[in-house]
Amino acid sequence: MTENTDPQRPEGQAQEQTQDRAQSEQTEGPVDPVETLQQALAAAQAQVQEHYDNLLRAQAEMENVRRRAQEEVAKARKFGIESFAEGLVPVKDSLEAALAQADQSADDMRAGIQTTLKQLAAAFERNHLTEIAPAAGEKFDPHHHQAIATVPAEQDANTVVAVLQKGYLIADRVLRPALVTVAS
Questions:
Q1: CB 180 within 8 A of CB 164
Q2: How many helices (H) and strands (E) does the chain have?
Q3: Neighbouring C-beta atoms of residue 106, cutoff 10 Å
Q4: Cα angle for residues 101, 103, 104 (degrees, 5° grid)
Q5: Gyration radius (Cα) of the chain, Å
């Protein structure tokens, strides 16, 4: 049996405790090794059961975390475009209002279209949707541009000659590359 002594206790008290234990063991009689092993086995089994219960709780908690994360991802997918949709609703309202006006001049129609385009551009900006519109002479970037044709030009080879269709980025990710012609 190992002795557990407290460093705060004086040596005399520790020796008295050891003597008291020895006397109590002598008065109780010999210790049965089978009984000692059975007690140790019971204690070990109780500890194993406790660890098993802790393992089951941890597994259940991990499953709950995984399920909650999946639910959050599903909600993000389902409602991820909500902000963008909120920006597009006024654009649709403006277009419908313009079509409802039967007798408008061309200048009024143009002004309404410009206002609607500004609303659309603001919705794009709020939702990190930016244009890819390279200038003539800009170096061709295969990550942002799609070459439709190569044409002979007086500018450097492998540079943009003309943009046929603008491209778009969503927060640094290409939604649609710009369609360009490239100098050969």
A1: yes
A2: 4, 6
A3: 7
A4: 80
A5: 40
Would you put residue 30 in left (φ > 0), alpha (ψ -120 to 50) or beta?
beta
Structure tokens at 152: 């002979």
pTM strictly above 0.90: no
Could you give the C-alpha distances from 30 to 12, 22, 33, 113, 157, in angstroms and in order? 27, 12, 9, 103, 100
Counting Cβ atoms within 10 Å, is residue 103 exposed (0-12), middle (13-18) or buried (19+)? exposed
| pLDDT one-digit tens code per residue, 28-76 | 557 789 999 999 999 999 999 999 999 999 999 999 999 999 999 998 8
- Cβ contact 31:1 at 8 Å: no
